[in-house]
Design a protein that fits this description.
Strand content: 15-25%
Number of strands: 17
Number of helices: 23
Largest sheet: 6 strands, antiparallel
Mean pLDDT: 90
Low-confidence stretches: 554-564
CATH topology of the largest domain: Rossmann fold
Number of domains: 2
Strand order of the largest sheet: 2-3-1-9-8-10
Distance between the termini: 39 Å
CATH architecture of the largest domain: 3-Layer(aba) Sandwich
CATH class of the largest domain: Alpha Beta
Structural class: alpha+beta
Radius of gyration: 23 Å
Shape: globular
Helix content: 25-40%
CATH superfamily of the largest domain: HUPs
């Protein structure tokens, strides 16, 4: 997890930009560079490094002797860089995975480069020969990037987080700051006066929408057993490739299906790969948290060095403002779930030497894990909703994972959102991906049934949202928050909410409270999230799974099994 920052086309004093670039220093605590471009005074790169691979030669912006006209800066991991290096016989000068971007661009151009990458990334590439700038982001948007473009002024700026470019130029720039869309790259020309001019935007590298066997009518469709085998194989390989690191690897372990599968695979592969340290797992919760109890069982089963972090309602409430500043979001679900993740990341940074953490984000969207998928009218509707969630994930759960970990200089990796795993899972017939026998993510669970990877009561444990799982079974985290906020937001204040915030108006005092804090840090930027993350096909005004009928029916039985 690094922080990238760059500006093109501005004649402002460089010292002003240093302050802006340093607003994302938390993303890369190991080194910082602010560098002008030779003979192009209007170009400036800022880079905060978290050294994961090649501590000596991995600093950025990166340039190579063979291609001195190419300046490259990126945040991410390119998992297939060794394969590409061998395939095209690239002469690397470092062991840094990001170097492959320069070689690919020099070999085949920007479109070729973008389509060849298997990984997660946000990049900025400058070609001083052609006077072109390219910026791009990975398929699902795992690594963040915001863009500011002022067409009239000819200014282009990018940053891993919006806070590094808010207030960068004149007062109207805020209206031009937006999250850069995943699976796209953009091209800009640098004019004779040094100004930046937008040229085009291109889409690339989306997961395959149509399975190969569906294109060949004479080929029989794969049997269910083949689908299960592919799920096991591809998820295992997605975890394996994320071992690419020279720093210690650990896992967030909530005790739910997704993080438990990832943690179990990490522990298994660590043994096979001969990793020299014990895998650390981390769970967090308030007193009586069902997640903590479940995670304890998983940790004992996989033999990890387990850490349990407790927090009180008061500590959670105290963290809310810092969480909103880090998130750059006012979404209710995102904030609720982020508090626990923020506090556990704080613990990992302070108390351990783990730097890379694997987590289970993305499985609920891809594998239809949310409780409301039980109410889907049809398999086709469920498939459409799953794809919609994946398209918007970079604004919600992926954002949560990135910001809460990067706030403490950690790097999160999410195997369930691996390009190949997502492509394969979406190729499975829609009817096989829906909840079955009253159990969500049935086909994912079935793929590992009988493998011994997890205890059966964990493998078949019903869905528990992270923001609920960290709570006591007696009082949910959202109820704790709402009771506190009731003392802070009066009825008269809430009545004015639609006038104060006409876009995404708060529908509850909790939403109003978060919006006030957000607007204080990022005024008039409510468009950064298009809507509130809420369940579909159900009649509820709260995003907590604990308000849904299916959850209430299964909760008592599952809790008794885990605590037995």
């Amino acid at each position: 997890m690094c922080g990238i920052w760059a500006i093109f086309g501005s004649n402002e004093d460089v010292h002003k930009y240093c302050e802006s670039a340093c607003k994302i220093a938390h993303r890369g605590p190991d080194a910082f560079c602010l560098e002008n471009v030779n003979h192009l005074a209007n170009c400036l790169f800022g880079f905060h490094r978290l050294a994961i691979v090649d501590d000596v030669f991995g600093m950025q912006p990166m340039r190579l002797k063979a291609y001195p006209h190419i300046w490259m800066m990126y945040n991410g991991e390119i998992y297939n860089f060794k394969k590409l290096r061998e395939q095209y016989k690239f002469d690397f000068t470092s062991n840094c995975d990001g170097e492959v971007l320069i070689h690919l661009y020099a070999h085949g151009g920007i479109d070729f480069m973008a389509k060849m990458l298997d990984g997660v990334f946000a990049f900025c590439l400058l070609d001083t020969q052609t006077k072109k700038v390219f910026i791009g982001r990975d398929t699902i948007g795992i690594r963040p990037m915001f863009r500011l473009y002022l067409e009239d002024d000819g200014i282009l700026a990018i940053c891993s987080e919006a806070k590094g470019i808010v207030g960068l130029s004149n007062t109207h720039d805020c209206a031009n700051i937006e999250p850069f869309p995943p699976a796209h790259y953009e091209e800009y020309d640098l004019l004779m006066n040094g100004k930046a001019m937008f040229v085009s935007r291109h889409k690339f590298h989306l997961y395959d929408e149509t399975p190969k066997w569906a294109l060949e009518t004479q080929t029989p469709k794969p049997e269910v057993d083949e689908h299960l085998a592919n799920i096991r194989l591809l998820l295992t390989e997605a975890v394996r490739k994320r071992f690419m690191a020279n720093r210690r690897i650990g896992c967030f372990l909530s005790g739910g299906l997704d993080s438990s599968l990832v943690s179990a695979l990490v522990a298994k592969l660590a043994t096979e790969e001969g990793v020299s340290y014990p895998i650390q797992t981390f769970s967090i919760g308030m007193k009586g948290s069902p997640d903590v109890a479940a995670a304890r069982k998983v940790a004992a089963h996989i033999g990890s060095e387990h850490h349990e972090i407790g927090f009180t309602p008061e500590e959670g409430i105290e963290a809310v403002e810092d969480v909103i500043y880090s998130l750059e979001s006012y979404d209710i679900t995102t904030i609720r779930a982020s508090v626990g993740m923020y506090l556990v990341s704080k613990y990992v940074k302070k108390e351990t030497d783990t730097v890379v953490v694997l987590s289970g984000e993305g499985a609920d969207e891809l594998c239809q894990g949310y409780i409301y998928f039980h109410m889907s009218p049809s398999a086709e509707d469920a498939d459409k909703e799953s794809r919609r969630l994946l398209d918007d994930l970079y604004l919600y759960d992926v954002l949560r994972g990135d910001r809460t970990t990067s706030a403490f200089g950690l790097e999160i990796r999410v195997p369930f959102l691996d390009h190949h795993f997502v492509s394969n899972f979406l190729s499975i017939p829609a009817k096989l991906r829906t909840p079955r026998h009253g159990v969500e993510k049935y086909i994912l669970r079935k793929a590992f049934d009988g493998s011994g990877l997890l205890p059966e009561e964990i493998l078949w444990r019903p869905k528990e949202a992270f923001s609920d799982g960290v709570s006591s079974t007696e009082k949910s985290w959202y109820q704790v928050l709402q009771e506190f906020i009731e003392t802070k937001v009066t009825d008269s204040m809430f009545e004015d909410a639609p006038k104060m915030y006409p876009f995404n108006p708060p529908k509850s005092k909790e939403a109003y409270y978060y919006r006030q804090i957000f607007e204080r840090f990022y005024p008039n930027r409510s468009s950064w999230i298009p809507y509130f993350w809420m369940p579909k096909w159900v009649n509820t005004d709260d995003p907590s799974a604990r308000t849904l009928k299916h959850y209430k029916e299964s909760d008592v039985e599952s809790s008794s099994k885990i605590n037995a």
